[in-house]
Amino acid sequence: MDSAPRSPNGFLSALNADDFELIRPHLRTVELVQESVLVEVGESLKRAFLPHMGVISLVVKLAKGEHVQIAMIGRDSVFGSFSALGDATALNSAVVMVPGVASTLDLDRLRAAADQSPTFRAALVRHGLAVYAQIQQTAGCNASHTVESRLARCLLHTRDLSGSDKLILTQESMAQMIGARRNSVSLVANTLQQAKFIHYSRGHIEIVNLDGLIKTSCECYATVKAQYTRLLQPRMHCAA
After folding, report:
1. 112 partner at 20 to 30 Å CA-CA among 65, 95, 198, 222?
2. Using CA of residue 186, residue 191, residue 194, residue 198, what is the dihedral sign?
3. What digits encode the pLDDT tens for the residues 65-115?
4. What's the whole-number mean pLDDT along residues 188-208?
5. Which spans in the chain are helix H?
6. How far apart are the first and last CA of the chain?
């Protein structure tokens, strides 16, 4: 059998041949269009998404209109893991933050594969736990760390998930990422640019000093990365 990766998505490429065959005939490739909404809170999720490129943002909407990101899903994982294992009603909204391409399939097909194969189900659980680890770390981070360190963390995580040092992010997207107001994001982005860690212009961000950005970030970046490595090894696809 060909040993080359069958997909740029980490979940798909980590499946053994038999497990992959359970869903292979049902996979379709779709474009992830920036700011498109994949599901709203309270809706029933119909399809799972497995990004090849691009990043999906999981967002909580508060009563006064604030939108706060609680997790990101990129090329290393799958959106819809817990929905396939339990209740398909979305607990949060999911929005495409970074455009790209994904494999997609009906959630019922994903659920059927999990029901049929214990190893497939175990893989879904691990990916769900990785997202849960990110959610709980994000909650602690937003409550305790500075806006500057939070933005550095999110830019680093987005870089890992998208596989690129060049990102297209609106001020509104970055505000959601770190649970802050847009004017705070503008000030902090300028600070990171003055430190020559990033180049920022009209929603285009390029990370130009990775080490500097890592030192600016709080410990949450390394903590989440370590949890993902532990849960998703050996096939996690992170940028070097």
Report:
1. 95
2. negative
3. 788 899 999 999 999 998 999 889 998 999 999 999 999 999 999 999 999
4. 91
5. 10-14, 17-23, 81-85, 107-116, 118-144, 147-162, 171-178, 182-194, 210-216, 220-232
6. 28
